[in-house]
Each structure stands twice: as C-alpha cells, then as structure tokens.
Amino acid sequence: MTATQILLGLGIGVITGVLAALCGVGGGLIMVPAFFLLMALDQKSAVATSLAVIIVVSLVATAKYHAASLVKWQIAIPVALGAAAAAWFATDWLKHFSNDTLSRIFGILMILVGIRMLAFK
Q1: What angle do CA 7, 48, 6 make, to 5 degrees?
Q2: Contact assessment for residue 28 and residue 46, using Cβ atoms and an 8 Å cutoff
Q3: Which of 5, 13, 36, 93 has the fewest CB within 10 Å, making it most exposed?
Q4: Each residue of 23-35: b (16+ CB within 10 Å) or e?
Q5: Cα dihedral sign, 50-52-53-57
C-alpha cells in the first residue's frame, strides 16, 4: 500500500467510525462506495472488505454502548443470529452476480433508503 492509500483508508475509517457510532451505519453506506470509488476495489471486494472492517468497528462501539446500558440484548441477539445465518448463505450468492449487477442493486438500495429516510420520520 502507498502512503496515499493508507491516509485515504484512515480517512474512510474515521468517517465510518463517526457515522457508525452516531447513526448505526458505516459498512455498506460509507465504506462500499468509498472503496469502489476512491480505492478502486471491485464491488465484490468492496463488500467483503467493508464487512471485515465493520467487525472491529462494531465490537468497539457495542462495548461502549453496552457500558452505557444502551444495547437491548433481547433484540440484538435474535437479530444477530438471524443475520449471521442469512449472511452465511448470502455470501455464496455474491459469487453469482457480476460486479455491475451488484453495483446496481446497491445503488437502488441506497436510493430507496435515502428516500425513506427523507420522506418519513
């Protein structure tokens, strides 16, 4: 990695960390487009890399929120189990889509989420 890539990665990390801690977003909404547009990763690698990064981000933020008694474990545990099971199988699906198709799916998802967030409380 070059010094520029390291600095760019740190910048993406700082933005991701702040947004993950404040809004609960970071992996998909911030890192995937940043990795794709700024670090020239293909869509599949951007998704996989963001998931690897979000493990550490999630653990740190969860520990801090748990210490503040903000985590609702009765909700978090079953959701985490369902998401983990679904992710196990969905990672195989990634292999069957082209990078272009994945980019389009991701773009549509971001548009729909943005419209929903702007239109409704």
Answers
A1: 10
A2: no
A3: 93
A4: eeebbbbbbbbbb
A5: positive
